[in-house]
Each structure stands twice: as structure tokens, then as C-alpha cells.
Amino acid sequence: MTSHLFSTSTNGETHPLTYRLREDRGYVDLTEFQQKDGYEALRTTLRDLSPDDLIENMKTANLRGRGGGGFSAGVKWSLTARGDDHPRGYIVCNADEMEPGTFKDRMLMEEIPHLLIEGMILAGYANNARMGYIFLRGEYVLAAERIEQALSEAREAGILGPKVCDSDFDFDIFLHTGAGRYICGEETALINSLEGRRANPRSKPPFPGQSGAWGKPTVVNNVETLCNVPAIALHGGEWYQNLSGGRSDDGGTKIFGVSGRVKRPGLVELPMGVTGAELLDMAGGMRDGLELKTWLPGGGSTGFLLPEHLELPLEFDAIGKAGSRLGTGLMTVVAPNQSVVSLTRNLEEFFARESCGWCTPCRDGLPWSVKLLRAIERGEGEEGDIDMLVSLAHDIGPGKTFCAHAPGAAMPLETAIEHFRHEFEAGIRHQKREAHAEPIPVGSV
Question: Taking every annotated instance into account, which residue ranges of this chain make up the domain NADH-ubiquinone oxidoreductase 51kDa subunit iron-sulphur binding (predicted)?
């Protein structure tokens, strides 16, 4: 079952990611993709642009990573070791979409995988790579079938393999399905898993751009990030930057989404800088009889925001200043009859389970937080438990662990206590108990 798209457009000038999607939400094959200018950016680039020209276009576009990190893709490419004195490396697509509440990449891979393939070939051309890998979440069975079909079509048409589109550039792509671990969303853990090793993060430096997969220069980009590359290559960086209409310094459009107790959960492509209120309105608003209590702006590893934050532009810097992160840009809404304690416990259980166990604060701190949250949820919390949770969140925060897994888990915990401490206090023994809010069952996030 694919994700509902609650707004569509056939205008490639305003909706470069989604305008080719079919009305029946089916697979866009090679013939249909090329009828809608598919692979035109690749042919034009190979004919008219140098790799450095494409990288400059990417930097001008200010395309920030759509996997959640928000780092400039153009800057990342410019830091990759290239040239005759460096070995040819790899382009790795991070398609291990396991962020709670996130389902945008799945839509792109199931419905229009040729767009991803074109973006990866262009990335390979810019970064002196001759091979690409799509590291796909193993549960995305339909996406795997569609990607393999698209790869076969592209090879048969001479778009992949030796002499791409009759040029002097060789590039091929292979699909690799993962075994289902959230930590593989961290780029160096992904590389270790791709190599057949345990999925632990690597020490940096060296960064993958200098020494990544099998010791070669490697660029790791998210699915949506790579799907933006063809439009930038075809129309230029300034065009892409201007798609936001001056609402944000972050370039382009993004696939935003809403899940939770709204009337029409789903996805939509909108300019960067659209507000949370506009996005919620496009989803039809909250279900009848419900108001918004709180929301996560971009997946389970982002911080809780309040209804008054809905007027903020959905961009990396503005959401960061409000104490959260834009993350993947898929909003999860919470209603008043839902317990923030239960929701937070559910998230922390997920993060504790998905820890690779490589460093002590993450390996031991996350299960400890889950133990405390379970006690509070049952009304059996002890005096000092809330302060201990705050301390644990601080101890696993940025700079305290080997990678960003634990800091991501700390953000919803910290902000939940900051905004809804009274709900946590109600779970402490000897405290005046408030009426129980409806719990959120495990696995519902």
C-alpha cells in the first residue's frame, strides 16, 4: 500500500519531485518517465557540463540533506576526493528509511525509481564514481521489486553500464537490502553493513568522502536528496534556490507529510519555508472533536513542539532555534487524549532496541530511561526519577556519544519533560494523580 498524496501537480517547474507521478499511483516505467523529460538532465549534463560545473550548481541550489541531517549536498560533494590522483569511488543511496513517522522515500522508490537512478548517475559523474549502491530497508519489498525493474530497464536502454547514454562515462547501480536496523541510517554504520561487517559507526575522520566503502571515496546521500539532483542539473542552482519563493534560505521544495489523528494523513511536495499550520491545514486539520496538543516536526528523533510553533517556517534553522529539528519533515501530531509519557516511552523503547551498543552512554543510558518511563507510566515512579531522566538525556546528548543515535533519542525525551512535566509528575508515587490520558500502544508511532 502506498502513501496518500493529498496534493498533486503536473507542473515540473514547481513540483520537480512529484509531477511525474501517475494518478493511479502506479509504477512510472522508463517509457513514461522519458516522455516526461526523464534522463534529459543526465544527457544534457554529460554533453554540456563538467563535474565541477554540476557541483557548483548543487552548492548554489543549497540543497540540504533530506534524510534529516540537513547538511549541504553541494558542499558534501565538493569535499569528496576526486581527480586522477584518487581512486574512483562509490555513490551510496541511504534508503534505510526507519525513522518513526517517516514514509516519503518509500513513495519515491515504489512509484518513480527512475528519478532516483538518474540522480545517482549524476552524483557519480560529479564525484568520480563508477558504481552505486542502493542500501534499502529490507521490509520495503515492493520498492525492491520496482527498483530492480527500473535498473533492468535502464541497463537495456544503455542508460546504465558502459558508456552511459553513448558518452565516455561508465556507471552501474546495484541494490542491497539491509537486515533491518535503524543504526544503518548513520552513514558509516551503513557502509560497514554494506561491506558485510557489523553495523557500528566508524570514527571520523577519515570521512567517507576520503575513505568510505572498501577504503574508496564514498558519497552517501538520502533518497529524496538524490531525487532532487536531476532538476538542479537541468534548470540550474539559482532556479532551484528560487523555488522557495523567498520564504527560506534553504533551497527548493521538499516532500512534507503528516501522520497521526488528522483527517487526511499523507504526503505533499511544498516549498521550503511553508509553515506547520499550512501543512496541517492541507491534511484537513485534526479529526473532528480533537485539538492539537503537541507535534513532532520530522520523525521520532526530533523534539516536541507546541501549537504556537505552528506558525514557524518548516526549515532547518527556524525549527532548530525553537528547540527541535526539521528532521525528515514529516509531522506527527498528538491529540489531548494521548499521553505524552506513553508516547515518549514508546519512542525510547525503539531507540534503546536499535542501539548498536558500541558506546556506553547509548547502550546503558537508553534502557535506563525506558525503565524509568515504564515506572512513571504505571504510576510507580519514585521521587527523583524525572530529574534522573533529565540527567540521562543530557549525558547522551550531542558530543557525548560515538554517533548521533543517542542524541536523537534524547531530544524527544528532553522536550517532552520540558513541555509536559506535569504528566510525568502525575506518575510519581504520592503525587496528586490526574485523570489518566489514553496510552499509546507500543508500535503505534
Answer: 341-386
- Asked whether the beta carbons of 325 and 366 are under 8 A apart, the reply is no
The burial of 395, by beta-carbon neighbours within 10 Å (0-12 exposed, 13-18 middle, 19 or more buried), is given as middle
Residue 212 lies in a domain: yes
Place of cell 523534539: 303
Domain total of the chain: 3
Q: Which triple of cell numbers denotes residue 188?
A: 558509516
pTM to 2 decimal places:
0.94
Backbone angles phi, psi at 28, to 5 degrees: -90, 105
Q: How many Å apart are CA 436 and CA 413, to the nearest integer?
A: 20
Pure H helices in 62-186: 73-78, 104-111, 113-126, 141-156
pLDDT 10s digits, 129-162: 999 999 999 999 999 999 999 999 999 999 999 9
Q: How far apart are CA 249 and CA 327, in angstroms?
A: 17
Residues 321 and 421 in one domain: no
pLDDT tens column, 368-382? 999 999 999 999 999
Say yes or no: 301 and 211 in one domain: no
The answer to whether residue 24 sits within a structural domain is no
| Residue 81 and residue 168 share a domain | yes
The answer on 346 and 330 residing in a single domain is: no
Same domain, 52 and 85: yes
Kindly give, in sequence order, each residue whose CB lies less than 8 Å from that of residue 238, ignoring residues fewer than 6 positions away. Answer: 60, 61
User: With contact defined as beta carbons under 8 Å apart, do 313 and 274 qualify?
Assistant: yes
